[in-house]
Amino acid sequence: MNTVLTRLYFGLIGIFLAAPIVVVAGVSVNEKQSLTFPPEGFSLAWYGAIFTDTGWRSAFFASVGLALASAALAVAIALPLAWFLWRRIAPWANIFQVLGIAPFTLPPVITALGLLTFWATTGFYGQPWTAVIGHAIFFVTLPLVTLSLGFSAIDRSLVEAAATMGADDRTVFRTVVLPLIRPYLVSGYAFAFVLSLNEYIVAYMTVGFTMETLPIKIFNALRYGYTPTMASVTILFVVVAALIFGLVARFGDLPKLLGAMAADDR
Question: What is the pLDDT of residue 264?
Fold first, then answer.
């Protein structure tokens, strides 16, 4: 009896969580230009509009470019920091870890206002590369956490053995450490990429309307009415996130990356 109630309970939760996505997916295939559910007719034209309409296509490539660049920069910042924190076991080293996690723990609007003030003061407000730096700072926590988990899983005796055999720090990192942390490196990049793709506040506060990403494009388009293309973009985001996280789960240790302990570590 308890098993049936448990399944029913989680089934209801699943339906509750999936219902908004089902509604948006239905709206995205409306044949007419209306946000009605159930859909009136069936058409995939609104998905095609993402790539055929000049405005939506530009926003799509702007979002992808921003996400690719900012995720790469976030990893480039997090990797040496995680490596340093793993090698330098000292109380004062935790300060750097706190600084790396702080941007993501603060409300996004606080980080966005800080970046807006900084770029406006330096005279670079509105430059596309400021959004790349802004997103990298905001999402550096994700690769920092995954890489810290990766480093914590390394057997230090392997590094000591390589050093005993005459390998310098660069060789140890390239031949021993990097192959072991590569799944965590890729996972951190994937997490930062997905969240950067969907982020609105930081991008808007750093570049305004000089660069339209898909989230900014959606909010701008709302001023002229509703269109199923907005729903199709939302479903595209969901599919991309599900695909990337699915690959991480397939080829990596997703529960550990999310902070769960393996059964044999308990």
Answer: 43
